[in-house]
Amino acid sequence: MTQADLVIINGSVVSHEATQKAAIAIRDGKIIAVGEESSMPPAKEVLDAKGLHLLPAAIDVHVHFRQPGYTHKETWESGTAAAAMGGVTTVFEMPNTNPPTATPEAFAEKLKLAEQQAYVDFGLYGLMAEDNVDQLEALAGCGVIGFKCFMGNTFGNLPSPSTGAMLEAFERVAPYGLRTSLHAETASIMAWRYERLRAAGRNDALAHIAARPDVVAVEAVSRAAILAEWTGARIHVLHVSSAAELRPMREAKQRGVDITSETCPHYLMMDTRDYASLGSLMRVNPPIREASDSESLWEAVRDGTLDMIATDHAPHTPSEQHNEVIWEADCGFPGVETQMPLMLTAVNKEQITLQEYVRISAVAPAKAWGLYPRKGSLTIGADADITLVDLARQEVIDQESLHSYRARATPFHGWNVKGLPVHTLVRGRFVMRDRKLQSDAKGSGLSVKRVQQMPIAQLANSDKTLAAEVAKVAAKREVLTS
Fold first, then answer.
1. Rounded distance, CA 146 to CA 158, Å?
2. Taking 90 as the threshold, does the pLDDT of residue 342 lie above it?
3. What angle, 0 to 180 degrees and rounded to 10, lies between the N-to-C axes of helices 291-303 and 246-254?
4. Cα–Cα 20 to 30 A to 218, which of 116, 149, 306, 342?
């Protein structure tokens, strides 16, 4: 029998369907056996996981690591170190850096930085904007994990594309099957309200919500779903914050639109009452809303309307986050390291089951991006991306100990959590062991390429695309001149 590199014994292996006592054997970064300890091959190392649960490691499809351009906030090294400490082994990083990831050249620059520094595996989003529609096919060929479309303004102030540009962009990317992630807030509504609120002297923290009422999300989700339905493009709604936007998502799924969605811990666990004590530290786009919204989001997580959990990890320095004038505070805070402890605390409180957590943190994102079962699964042949968690271990979140060391301020500072990742393995290699980052794993993260497991992509209404209509003109000219 061939020797394994590592065998993990005495643990409880968790899937999205069940939990069972089992051992796991790993060789060359892959899982080669799952079952009784007696059936495991000999191994170079044996890890006793008594009292621990083995989870498919989390996949966070929404992080901002700020490099290049904003390294005073975060770097690939610090951001992926935080991911490793948080039990996250694959991250998808957003394109609103400087320069934005809008061209193959910018993609190559960011890829090089990530390969040099990353502790965990990663995918890179390409930007979908008004001024780079002609770059989308080239970005798809470079190996982007998908595209990011900012329908509303946020950090980086990248101009939101017009509906016309979005339609052509969807037409261009639909044949590739790449999913477009949407910051689904309507820019024109927000800009209109922002100018009038600020002119009226509304500078308080709650003015941020007044400038971005939930109708901005309802309108944007509805519009994007119509464009996706028309073109056959695959879309993903980022950071769902309100009960109201669940309706257009449910309706789109019923119509057959390939639409997935996420929410974040702060939308589930905080509400408007927290602004009184936290002020601008809570400023995030879209805003944290009412307690009734949080309750509806929890229900949507449980019934599958919301497919997955992500973080929108968006670090800024404390001086950038704290401001009495809400409009002057940067939006966002770190989250990739605290997501799993917060959600395991919810498991302990019986708000969701451990199996449901595995579904939303690992299985659903892997399936939505065509990575399953290579990622998101503890089965034979899968990458050995494993997080071993202690559901009984308690800790207080301390922002000074977070590994996003350049920008640690978080509204979850001081929260008691129960349930912590103890070991994190990326393709069978420890990147965090016994709650300590393994510094020699820096640079071991790999770019995630799509695995062809998703349904074949199809462009709908192909005879009515902008390219098809332009081609008709060219064909007519050719006939007239021949």
1. 18
2. yes
3. 20
4. 342
